[in-house]
């Protein structure tokens, strides 16, 4: 049973799959996660719980696959004996919005397609990944590594294709199962010797035939002799699909990696072992050979008794050692799966999977943004961008927190805070936050970052870089000229000192400082966002160039661009305050997205995949041009269009 949790539209959805991944039944339970204490809502919730329990009792699932946004406590009754597995939903979401899902499940809604993919992904991850390797190449949107953006599209697909070929040929394909269930056919294109065109032709022929009982008959299904020679060892013939109910003979060797060209060697080896074990000389007819192969397969210990070098010497086939080694392995355990066995996710993996966070994005000491949702007497209930709940107490809000009577005196609902993560309660999907100024200045987080295990610093180079930076700062200080200006927003500091001073201040905070261009200029440094600062040049006028005292003081006029002001107070009132107001409006806008341009672009692609008919857009900060916002949007293609506006 696969379960996808919806926000209401679509509703929570349960899909029951059979062992072949085909849909048996669907149940919608939209009231299952209601938190309202309203009597009618509680009754609707109870009704949905009863319907889900009946759904499970009617079908008796062996495993429940769940994709959830938070740990479900609503379907806990009567499920103690069932195995519940949490599954990453990224690939099922791609399938939900792919063209192939519409062809395979034409009558189903999007969330049902996602739930079906969720269950099938656990049943046969190779087939589900291969499903997204069609002409649309939806697999390219599957995030496999944080550095994959450095690859070109064709480079990434080339690597995906290489892995798919390796794994598909390693595990093989059950031909009769693929003929009966379309989604099992997806990896066929990666079988050696086939490719998309020949695989599609073979699939159509197999569907028409319904089942196949002899490996060599594949030649009659459109495979040329050379293609058959390349592909035969990876195409498995089992009593499955429509062949499951047939009594027709199936050769045991047809479900091994032994190539038909080597069947004679395998049969001879099995017969020799059988004759030795039963102390007799059996016949060479088909029944006797089949009996010998069954004997060896059921008693793998008899194979281990064979001294291969002596046996090959007796047959004068010393040059066939590797072939015989493979034959012996396949006779003892045909098509043994060499992949690592599936393991249930650990509690930590479940937390990161369901929250969408990673060890790098959420950890103790990490700086995050949190939106205040509700204020209680001594704490603020916040929400992080990922949806995790954040708890902020008045003691952790400010250094004078103990003197605060009510947090509502300092905070408002909807306010965005920059905080540090104090601790994480993964089992409750909660984080405790702290935003005291003294703690925000502390950079212990920098010492705790996990480094790549292969990263090694060149200490000599590191010392050289540090020395170079130190000398540059000394040079700046040496040429720095302080000014005789008294104003609460002015400080005699350098650009580096200004950004350091503003680093723990709120967005929109600013400071005026001397300019490196000389005594006729000032610079306004404005904090745009975390790590992004804009430096605006202020031209001073009305000075006596020969009077050093006049040059040291502030000019009689201050010009920024085309606007002229009489003093710094007017600069703050007419220029800075409106600018900061617009900045905060943009930062609080619902379509604003934090992150780098590539991160914002990826969020848009995900939103577009979920809403193909919609023109999706968002605003973001330009790191390259501080003070500029980026408008990114996608219309009818996957390419992200960008416009910059100051």
Walkthrough of the structure:
The protein has 646 residues and is α+β, with helices and mostly antiparallel strands. It contains 22 helices and 20 strands. The relative contact order is 0.05. This is S1 motif domain-containing protein.
Write the layout of secondary structure elements.
Elements: E1 2-4, E2 13-17, E3 23-28, H1 39-59, E4 63-67, E5 83-86, H2 90-96, H3 99-104, H4 110-123, H5 125-131, H6 153-171, E6 173-174, H7 175-180, H8 196-209, H9 225-231, E7 235-236, H10 263-278, H11 286-298, H12 300-304, H13 308-315, H14 321-332, H15 347-355, E8 367-375, E9 379-384, E10 389-393, H16 394-397, E11 416-425, E12 430-434, H17 437-441, H18 459-479, H19 495-502, E13 510-514, E14 521-529, E15 532-541, H20 548-552, E16 557-560, E17 563-565, H21 568-588, H22 597-610, E18 616-621, E19 629-634, E20 641-645
Parallel strand pairs: 1-4, 4-5, 6-7, 10-12
Antiparallel strand pairs: 1-2, 2-3, 8-9, 8-11, 9-10, 11-12, 13-14, 14-15, 15-16, 16-17, 18-19, 19-20
Helix pairs in contact: 2-4, 4-5, 10-11
